[in-house]
């Protein structure tokens, strides 16, 4: 396999010291970094090293809990809660070897905060840290607004975390240790992607990096600088920031959203141990109006941008499937709200597994339209652990636009450029090693086909607690879909018969009413004739 090509690039370091007095200088530095690299680090930001380390300690305490406990706060389509090994990026075709816990400010977190009985002070510590990061974010937003010619509070208003439709997220991340007996294959703890949101602020421990950037992307802009990566290392206490697709659109492509990844160690000197990081994703409210000062792209809302990004994802994924590149495990994702997890394909897994290559058209067009009301409860059993998978999503969760896009989330006509040299996931990351331990039963009574264990293949080291062949979930959904189609067809035929019967009855009743009206009219004429004859006879009688 071709080794990664590296090149040294200057990652700007910007101090926020004396912010009010130096705001013009800081703005110029931030704008330059956003225009030329898309990544930069900030120092003197006001968050102490002790506060950062305390938050990392809180994160470690959470991830050290048993999976059964973490599964009590499962990820849901509002992008809150815990997930494990549920992201597979098209750039790698293999799941990211990590788990994460998404936290928000508002009502979406109801019932999804880890109890203080498991991690003392968890909610209080997290919210306090989130508020500190939000204040740093707001300073950067003021500078970016100035740089684009907007009022200082322009971005502050649409990122108001006190609003119910606030979407900003803090994500605690835990990457698993990698065995040092590597065969030389380069895998990735987080595959190459670009964040779809506004601005990402990343905290990582010194010596635990692995973060790499690659300015350039397959889009319709002119920002494409090649495929050479740069390792990102930072000083203790510094914060890494990167521009997202949404801010790139908002700036009319002046600011650059950059590809980045977290490569698993495979070379001398790499860090093989566990890696912890904390990412804060600034994302505007759903009703925010997104359009740059030059109006390069049509005006869209935050919600519309996300919906368009979903369309982009499906178009790119379909193109990749048609190119013959095996996806291995189907589910796109990235370190932001755009993760298309198992929930997005119609399942809510408390321990968040992935799905193996469900049919694209099935996922996109049929499941939510026809099978959603039917496939309500699928129960998986492994030893003493029950994990209920309940489909309750009203729509796909948000997706990140890291595939070909014009930064309004709309697909481009550019095809996937080429196949990667390694198109097959390594054995320890393959999805076909899962084995079911018990039948899957649907709520409406049918018992779908049960998978057979593949005894010759070892289980995933980080998914051993799953014990499930998720490819069989597609068969279950197909069963539900077939039932739904049959029911819909029968129901439609009955409705058609009832409609024609109603029309015939209405015609019959109309004719009958018309006949009755004619009879009544004739009776009135007869009565009028009789009354006239009576009057004439009475008149003659008086004359005599």
Automatic annotation (TrEMBL):
GO terms for biological process: small molecule biosynthetic process. The keyword Transmembrane applies. Keywords: Membrane, Transmembrane, Transmembrane helix. Residues 165-284 form the Fe2OG dioxygenase domain. PROSITE patterns: FE2OG_OXY (PS51471). Pfam families: 2OG-FeII_Oxy, DIOX_N. Residues 396-432 are annotated as: Disordered. The keyword Coiled coil does not apply. This is UPF0676 protein.
